[in-house]
């Protein structure tokens, strides 16, 4: 079941200072070979592009994926995101 989380929800659920601590940890883990962040994959479409980014933090037991489509106009209204 999909759950929609707004920008406001994210700010409430994940405070910036906590984000900074997590990003610092995952960068250290990546430098030690304990986390992987693959380069973004781009798929050209007739009226835009579809992009996918994946990563894993093995010690934390976390896997993430962000996939989104961008329209030719490049506006926010043309962009759709799915994050897992």
Can you characterise this structure?
The chain is of the alpha+beta class and 84 residues long. The chain is built from 2 helices and 5 strands. Strands 1, 2, 3, 4 and 5 form a 5-stranded antiparallel β-sheet that branches. The protein is globular. InterPro entries: NAD(P)-bd_dom_sf, ODC_N. It comes from marine metagenome. This is Ornithine cyclodeaminase.
Describe the protein's topology.
Blueprint lengths: L6 H7 L2 H16 L3 E3 L3 E5 L2 E10 L4 E10 L8 E4 L1
Q: Which structural traits does this protein have?
A:
single chain; about 80 residues; alpha+beta; ornithine cyclodeaminase, domain 1; about 40% strand; globular
Quickly describe the structure:
The protein is α+β, with helices and mostly antiparallel strands.
Helical fraction equals: 25-40%
Instruction: Give the CA-CA distance, first to last residue.
Output: 12 Å
State the name of the first-level CATH class.
Answer: Alpha Beta
Sum up the overall morphology in one term: globular
